[in-house]
Specification:
2 domains; homodimer; elongated; 243 residues; Alpha-Beta Plaits; alpha/beta; 6-stranded mixed β-sheet
Chain lengths: 243, 243
């Protein structure tokens, strides 16, 4: 596959302490797969300057796109925008376009603009704003790095607004076959099929149900005809145990 | 804090494609926090040899412990054990102790031992086995790397069996205060408190409920008296809006 590749950097102590369960990664993974973009690496780091800067640098260099979530709010632990600017060698300050968006939003709601809220208008030079339809404070894209909020509803809205602007690849198609046999019984045949259909990926995801083992085999690829053929061969190999 | 640090490497295409939502990271994060071990970095990579080897090397070097999940089953895409051996410069082959455990398990269940199942007895030289009370196929510890299965029930059982053997630190205590004001209104005061109580960490986790904003502030640290004091100051600062 020559589809574009993407990485994600999830930022926040609350995820790593086990207090909050991240849902943004799973959401982004699904949207990227639909768009034909291969998410190949995810990193989760704490609200730590060095960890964020190093993570952004490493992932932006290796992948066509990097998506970040978290750390762009008004409190002292929200340091993502400044870290991304540093990683991308950009200067950063309160930007008038972002400030105007926030001011209009607060005016409508009768909320006071203060120093903390003004921090959310800190945007690196050269970045493009990402619309936040929920609480106004924008995300931004700089180079191949897309910086988004951590609150899931806002993160998801931001993803929806930028994905159409990113060139995707051929959509990755998949077919799933449930096989009611233990993985150890299907592994040899599966390996042969994976060798034979080298353009497809065969994933085996074991499960246990009512004390018995089975596996969901997922065949993924870009060519629908190949997937249909491989799926038929897999079903034939396991007869009544495949569904 | 001088507590030990840990990283996690989650291995599997199914997580990155959005097909499966990982739950092992959240589980491990909670158990490590209870044990006084700071989970500071998580990476998720696909079933790719280079990605796994590089991830193990980088994370094992930087942290006191590395926990991996996924990729130790019998199918062709289960390459974790061989990759960990390569990353740790250990040789790997079917080991008699692991083979005996599997053979006894299959004999009890009347299941045939075949080449695919035998792959699960491939254990690096010098590794210690981790008990798998559910499906027998063991995990292992080599150096500071703990290699565990991806199926959540098995992963969780393996974590329970090795954590007592790992030296933890002082348990990290936390106190949570809900403040029914927007983050932008509490940020300045919170930042002052964070400066004043430099041994504690103050996390602010915004939420939206019934169209209004609030934040859960979590104060974490090792000294209970400091946490009690900081919590009282925070509550006093926001009066009726704190609960």
């Amino acid at each position: 596959m020559t589809n574009p590749t993407a990485a994600m950097l999830v930022i926040g102590d609350e995820i790593l302490s086990g207090r909050t369960r991240d849902s943004n990664m799973h959401h982004l993974a699904g949207r990227l797969t639909e768009a034909g973009i291969n998410l190949t690496e995810v990193r989760m780091v704490s609200d730590d300057r060095t960890a964020i800067v190093d993570g952004v640098r490493a992932l932006a260099r290796k992948h066509d796109h990097l998506f970040t979530s978290g750390g762009i709010g008004p409190t002292h632990d929200d340091i993502t925008a400044d870290c991304v600017a540093e990683a991308m060698n950009a200067s950063i300050d309160v930007r008038s376009d972002a400030r105007a968006i926030l001011q209009a939003h607060y005016d409508r709601q009768g909320i006071e603009m203060n120093a903390a809220r003004l921090r959310m208008a800190r945007i690196p030079d050269g970045a493009t704003l990402i619309n936040n339809p929920i609480s106004a404070a924008p995300g931004f894209t700089i180079g191949n790095v897309h910086v988004m909020a951590g609150i899931p509803a806002i993160f998801e809205a931001m993803v929806a607004s930028i994905l159409p602007m990113i060139a995707g690849g051929d959509p990755v198609l998949s077919e799933s076959v449930r096989i009611d046999r233990a993985e150890g019984d299907i592994a040899a045949r599966l390996s042969e099929l994976a060798d034979e259909f080298a353009n497809l990926s065969f994933g085996s995801y074991p499960f246990r149900q009512n004390g018995r083992y089975g596996a969901n085999v997922v065949i993924r690829g870009i060519e629908p005809q190949q997937i249909i053929q491989a799926t038929a061969r897999l079903r034939a190999a396991f007869g009544d145990d495949a569904s």
